[in-house]
Structures
1.
Amino acid sequence: MSNKKTGNVLFQQANEAYFDDEFEQSESLYTQAIAADSTVGDYYLKRAQVRSKLGNTSGASSDARKASDLTANKSDQLRQYFKALYLHGKWAFELKQYDEAAESLRKAATINPSHEEVKALLEKTEPLTTPAPEPQAEPKAEGTEPARPKVRHEWYQTDDFVILEVFIKRVQKDAAAVEFGGRAVSLSVKMATGSENNYDFDPLQHNIVASESTFEVLSTKIEIRLKKAQPGVKWSHLEQTDEDQAAKSLSQLGSSRKGVSWDTIAADAEKEAKLKPSEQGVNELFQSIYRDADPDTRRAMMKSYVESNGTSLSTDWSSVGKGPVETLPPTDTFAKPYSS
């Protein structure tokens, strides 16, 4: 029997023990189910409720937090996610862990704004949280761009929205402004001291619908709701990473009018027999370099060759990946623009 099947069998047995009020046995069986398969959020959520019955509030809170982590960003487990957030917030409050409680309750309130128990508990919790210090911009070196001011922010998503929470307390509603772009969002906040801080998230990992994106200033945070341009697409990061940029560059190369496959060149050695001896040596060298290269070196070779219109070939992705590669024609010649 596989671990998943074993876990499910133990989970069912634990449920039966729970309904028979055999809480200690039920906790033991849930623990065995988790040992068999620790990827199921519902196992932790049910054990959390049993531990609460047994008076183990700390263990219950920890399990609820784990359950929320495992069910986050899964549309088919939204009910379990909401329940895990609410229970974690409730038990963290009982343990006087007010910052943790508020964090989970805010997320639960976003999922179900009309839930009275969540709203009431959040109102009790927020005044007890630790005041966030006013964000300070890091000093910049001469001739460099100013660094983004440090501020705690978190994000999560549904099928239709990415919700960005920027935790700055006691901001006046008319003191915050948000600008939405096709793939960027900019937040400007005027602080009570008179200073103004700007937070730019650019570029975002995917496109958004600016006209349907909104923001709201709350007592402990600024909540920004980004409407996904492609509903249902899961974001793995809030902002575009270097890996995303590399993938985009390769995609663009694939559709280029002068696209080249060095894999094909490396595999088609028979054609080299028709080349002059000097040409054979050069191409064999390129084939050998490409065949034995790591992924970044291959990306650099493809990108530099295509974008330079065959006038440049580089193996340094750290340099090539920063932007377009210029065409470098031979001395005393010039590059003629292509026209279709």
2.
Amino acid sequence: MASKLAAECIFCRIIKGEIPSVKLLETTHSYAFLDIGPLSEGHALVIPKYHAEKMHELPDEFLADSMPIAKKIAKALKMDNYNVLQNNGKIAHQEVPHVHFHVIPKPNEAGGLSMSWPAKSADVEKLKELAGSLKFDN
């Protein structure tokens, strides 16, 4: 599938070279660059060359290209600890309405991404019921 870009999208404009970036890697389906508002040194973004706001809207070939690039960035940074983050929707903390993956080095406890994980207890029977109700596309 060919790339699809939106004229008004900041990430699409970066891909087209209309807005400067510090490029790390580029493939037919993806573009990776250093974040200009990094959480830590080496914080990078991997963006598909297809304008989709949410991951489930992105064609599989663009999605499949993103993780190997994130892996290459993580290996090149030579960091033992890092986060790969992807948000979908405003209340899920997505700031730019174009699918993107953050590769965020975690150099120490204070640096990089900070987060909390308010885990709750789950009822196994309710989990089984939910799993049984889900329908997956082929």
3.
Amino acid sequence: MNCIALVADREVARLTAEPIDDNNTGESNSVPVKRSHELCEDRDVGGYLCEGLDVFAVREPCVMCTMALVHSRIGRLFFVEQNHSGGISRYAMHSHKALNHNFTAFVCHLS
């Protein structure tokens, strides 16, 4: 789940106003991230760094990665290739009522 770690690193840097140097060139990149909880002041995200963010993937995440996405509190998942033993297609973990967070998942078809 390198994508979650990257998002978390960027978010921490943005919140602490530290510049990010992705290429070790000495030049910083701005991080123009607006999350849904920043638009609604009455929401308390409790430190979940990926709250409301979208994830784009080529393949459907496995069961373990789907649970990592649930725990990181993403907003939506978009993927192209279905995996019939994956966490979305087989177990519908993204919308399981027993879990304390749900997200919306979309299968994208490329033309």
4.
Amino acid sequence: MSLPHKNEEYGTEVYWDKRYEQEAEDASFDWFKTYADVANDIRKLIPSKAARILMLGCGNSKFSEDMWEDGYKNIVNVDYSPVVIEKMRNRHKDIRPEMTWEVNDVRTLDGLDTSSFDVAIDKGTMDAMMTSSTDVWDPSEQVIKDCTAEVSQVLRVLRRNGIFIYITFGQPHFRRRYLTGAHVTRNTSLEINQLGESFHYYMYTLRML
């Protein structure tokens, strides 16, 4: 795995394309938590295995694969790296044909219809966009713009009663601003759950009302 020279490279398409080009065809990497770590929480939040799910910034994570094995077949995976999308499409097209893989930017979600998904999941993607700012207390205008754009687009594509699940190590006083505020133009409720016993992660659930 090729690590960046600077943390802010995590937020660039150039870094990810280069990294995925260098990695083996069967390589995988999961940020923060695996599906097994949060499966019980996911099953409670998504009781219907027929739910249409959008995986934001999927990378080469096994999270979608493991959800598929758990019965969630209707998953649309998006990432702005055409390199990883092509690799993942080839990896899964024969054995998990129901899953689809699309090149798309979470800040725009071009081509995805309004009110077309029941669930959207972000596990580390928004965090990668935050690496361009060195001050978590005072993030740059670009970080705020990128993160609020993602949330706005997610809310656009979610159906009524849909949910946005965001898994991160970011504490509420750093992350809440991106999940609430003027850019959230639809009625929502926010639930925050702490994961883990030593090093804490957080699961934010933004529910459409």
